[in-house]
């Protein structure tokens, strides 16, 4: 039986490409028990997907938002659960 995990997806807008956003997202993720990915989108946004314990995921996303606040104009979030298996945290191209 598959175990459902909490998943938060965030789409960041602003000056979020070309400023080390994905690298910082990956770096901060190492301090939390989260898996998932971060990637640039063709429309200039960055898409983040973080999976794990709800509290851990929320704390991770807040830490990233605080760290990159000067570059984020807006963000949109969606939460759900998933039984997909995520291993580690990756920067996707």
Automatic annotation (TrEMBL):
<dbReference type="InterPro" id="IPR020456">
    <property type="entry name" value="Acylphosphatase"/>
</dbReference>
<protein>
    <recommendedName>
        <fullName>acylphosphatase</fullName>
        <ecNumber>3.6.1.7</ecNumber>
    </recommendedName>
</protein>
<dbReference type="InterPro" id="IPR017968">
    <property type="entry name" value="Acylphosphatase_CS"/>
</dbReference>
<dbReference type="InterPro" id="IPR036046">
    <property type="entry name" value="Acylphosphatase-like_dom_sf"/>
</dbReference>
<dbReference type="Pfam" id="PF00708">
    <property type="entry name" value="Acylphosphatase"/>
</dbReference>
<comment type="similarity">
    <text>Belongs to the acylphosphatase family.</text>
</comment>
<feature type="active site">
    <location>
        <position position="40"/>
    </location>
</feature>
<dbReference type="InterPro" id="IPR001792">
    <property type="entry name" value="Acylphosphatase-like_dom"/>
</dbReference>
<dbReference type="GO" id="GO:0003998">
    <property type="term" value="F:acylphosphatase activity"/>
</dbReference>
<feature type="domain" description="Acylphosphatase-like">
    <location>
        <begin position="7"/>
        <end position="93"/>
    </location>
</feature>
<keyword id="KW-0378">Hydrolase</keyword>
<feature type="active site">
    <location>
        <position position="22"/>
    </location>
</feature>
């Amino acid at each position: 039986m598959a175990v459902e995990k909490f998943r938060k997806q965030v789409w960041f807008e602003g000056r979020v490409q070309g400023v080390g956003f994905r690298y910082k997202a990956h770096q901060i993720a190492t301090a939390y028990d989260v898996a998932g990915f971060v990637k640039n989108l063709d429309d200039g946004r960055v898409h983040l997907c973080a999976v794990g314990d709800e509290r851990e995921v929320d704390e991770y996303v807040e830490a990233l938002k605080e760290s990159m606040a000067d570059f984020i104009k807006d963000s949109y979030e969606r939460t759900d659960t998933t039984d997909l298996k995520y291993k580690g945290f990756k920067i996707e191209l």
